[in-house]
Design goal:
Layout (H helix, E strand, L loop, with lengths): L5 H12 L5 H17 L3 H7 L7 H9 L3 H14 L1 H19 L1
Length: 103
């Protein structure tokens, strides 16, 4: 069994007690960044900064719809395949990526 080292513990607690994080400042800065992206209609910037797959929003959506995430994603894919307007919208949004991959 490992022995308790009081001096080592004291050192770590001193380090931890010196950390100061201003959550209000972090929040205010992030909100300002978000508001700027929205005001400038920089949707690509919003998507890059706040990727949906890394957030809990998809879990909330599927829970409210009563679906599994796999079913929801399958329905979205089916919508893109079957709805010409949505398909064209997605093609336009992904055109730069498509051009890059094809060249």
């Amino acid at each position: 069994m490992a022995q308790f080292d009081r001096n080592r513990w004291r050192h770590h607690s001193e380090i931890a007690s010196s950390i100061n994080i201003n959550l209000k400042e972090l929040f205010d800065n992030e909100k300002a960044t978000f508001d700027t992206l929205v005001a400038s209609r920089n949707y690509n910037g919003i998507i890059r900064r706040y990727p949906i797959r890394e957030s809990q929003i998809l879990n909330s959506i599927v829970r409210e719809l009563g679906l599994s995430r796999e079913d929801y994603e399958g329905m979205v894919r089916k919508l893109i395949i079957n709805n010409i307007e949505v398909k064209n919208l997605m093609k336009n949004k992904l055109q730069k990526l498509t051009d890059f991959l094809e060249n």
